[in-house]
Specification:
With 466 residues, the chain is an alpha/beta fold. The strands form four sheets. It has a seven-stranded mixed sheet with strand order 3-2-1-4-18-17-16, with helices on both faces. Strands 6-14-7-8-10-9 form a six-stranded parallel sheet. It is 34% helix and 19% strand. It has two domains: 3-110 and 326-416, Rossmann fold (3-Layer(aba) Sandwich), CATH 3.40.50; 112-324, 3-Layer(bba) Sandwich (FAD/NAD(P)-binding domain), CATH 3.50.50.60. The structure holds NADP nicotinamide-adenine-dinucleotide phosphate. NADP nicotinamide-adenine-dinucleotide phosphate binds at residues 59, 62, 113, 115, 156-162, 164, 201-203, 207, 209, 211, 214, 321-324, 369-372.
Length: 466
């Protein structure tokens, strides 16, 4: 088949996951000269993945990247959204390989790491992801309740997610009301008793993973003091060299040192930033009553060593925010040691490090949970450039008639949704927000989301309070 014959039939690409990595991949696919048809699958009836369900609700500015991402669907039938389709249940790997010329996995990191310490599963000890899902109105968390009646809360970890969680916990109810959280979540924050959040980092401030932009966000908290003990911002000689070599680090350290010197202003709530402390065990009779911390000392290589000096911090709730991790997809190769889909420049590798025929990966499933939303743009561009180079070597395309996939989904009884359904749900959430003077009010219950997106009445479920 020559190029003219080949272009008579467009290659068909399936993208699994409608988050930023998947939608940036669609953008890169559309920017290519090749005529392509793209189907974007998501297990939820909503697009935007981590932008909708990971970025903290008080960071609406960052969420506005959806204006860019949504243009992936401005191309009529060339790009279809197929929401509420579960990979491995409603559509399987073998189906995608049969019906498409290329498959891009952009499924992110659905799991999270554990601390592996005694007491971790006591009531009152939660993975940060569960809390993030909940305050962001993720349907997986629709049944969950967070009791915010604790006064003292620990957040373990020194990354941006830990900062998000700490910041949300000390925000005033009025500030939370200015976000898009579901009504039920807003009610819980209105009834919150939290006064002190202890952010616990096992290494020093130089090793903290906060980005300056996110750390600066703590300055805007209206009724909150930041508490840092002077000994926690003391450096070892090697730290100074690291700080001088890195502009981001210089910004972070300057901010943290400034807070450490500043007198407290008698605010109602506090974030205590504690560095060089390792949680050893979580204690409590029937629920969390405290966490035992071992003082660490810094080593020249950036690592730490335990000193054996223990302290018990009295807290009633703990959020563990020590990193997300990708989970295996049914039948898709997975590197368990690195918790990613193994690949070379985005082309998926099988268990013997050989390229699979037409599978690709992008985003957190490819590189692990690192970087910001924007990092996915270059990441997806690399994957798509590998994919397009591979397609160019093919003598023919085999992707099937777009209707056949819909028939397959119908045969499986999948209640899939289209882009127009999402737009209807989007309109509903925005209208609900306008009626309360808020940017949006999220609907967190899957059944209500589906009903609203189809235009059927779900009055009883509005606001997800059913
Ligand atoms: P992260 O940046 O990898 O941070 C994980 C933190 O957990 C690190 O401080 C790590 O310390 C600590 N940790 C790991 N295992 C631990 C253990 N056993 N005990 C105590 N501490 C432990 O992960 P993340 O915060 O989940 O963020 C994920 C990604 O999302 C990052 O790229 C982040 O920048 C991004 N993100 C961005 C934004 C934003 O831009 N607004 C917001 C949220 C998240 P060590 O360094 O010592 O391992």
């Amino acid at each position: 088949m020559n190029d003219a014959d080949k272009s008579a039939r467009s290659a068909r690409v399936a993208v699994v996951g409608a988050g930023p990595a998947g939608l940036y991949a669609v953008h890169s696919l559309l920017a290519s000269a090749s005529p392509l048809g793209v189907d974007v699958f998501d297990r939820l009836p909503t697009p935007y993945g981590l932008v909708r369900y990971g970025v903290a609700p008080d960071n609406q500015k960052m969420k506005s990247v959806t204006r860019v991402l949504r243009t992936a669907f401005d191309h009529g039938k060339q790009v279809r959204f197929l929401g509420n389709v579960r990979f491995g249940v409603d559509i399987r790997r073998a189906d995608l390989l049969e019906h498409y010329d290329a498959v891009v996995y952009a499924t992110g990191a659905q799991g999270e790491r554990r601390l592996d310490i005694p007491g971790e599963d006591l009531p009152g000890s939660y993975g940060a992801k569960a809390f993030v899902d909940w305050y962001n109105g993720h349907p997986d968390a629709a049944e969950r309740d967070f009791d915010l009646r604790a006064h003292h809360v620990a957040v373990v970890g020194a990354g941006n997610v830990a900062l998000d969680v700490a910041r949300m916990l000390v925000r005033s109810p009025d500030e939370i009301a200015a976000t898009d959280v579901p009504d039920r979540v807003l009610d819980a924050f209105r009834n919150s008793h939290v006064t002190d959040v202890h952010l616990i980092a096992r290494r020093g401030l130089v090793q903290a993973k906060f980005t300056p932009e996110e750390l600066r966000g703590l300055k805007d908290l209206v009724d909150v003091d930041i508490v840092i003990r002077p000994e926690d911002v003391s450096m070892i000689d090697d730290d100074e060299a690291r700080i001088q070599a890195n502009r981001q680090l210089r910004t972070n350290v300057a901010m943290l040192r400034d807070w450490a010197q500043r007198p407290l202003r008698g605010k109602s709530r506090r974030i205590h930033m504690r560095f060089l402390q390792r949680p050893v065990r979580i204690v409590g009779e029937n629920r969390v009553e405290g966490v035992v911390l071992e003082r660490n000392e810094p080593l020249a290589d950036g690592g730490v060593r335990g000193t054996g000096r223990m302290e018990t911090l009295d807290v009633e709730t703990i959020f563990r925010s020590v990193g997300y991790e990708a989970l295996p997809l049914p039948d898709v190769p997975f590197d368990r040691a690195r918790s990613i889909i193994p690949h070379h420049r985005g082309r998926v590798l099988d268990g013997n490090d050989l390229s699979t025929e037409k599978e690709y990966v992008t985003g957190w499933a490819k590189r692990g949970p690192s970087g910001t939303i924007g990092t996915n743009k270059s990441d997806s561009a690399e994957t798509v450039s590998t994919l397009l180079a591979d397609l160019a070597t093919r003598s023919s395309y085999h992707g099937s008639d777009p209707e056949r996939v819909l028939t397959l989904l119908d045969d499986r009884g999948a209640q899939y949704t289209h882009w127009a359904n999402w737009l209807r749900l989007d309109d509903h959430e925005l209208a609900l927000g306008r009626s309360q003077g808020r940017p949006r009010v999220k609907i967190p219950v899957l059944r209500a989301m589906l009903e609203l997106s189809r235009g059927s009445s779900a009055r009883g479920a509005i606001g997800g309070t059913e």
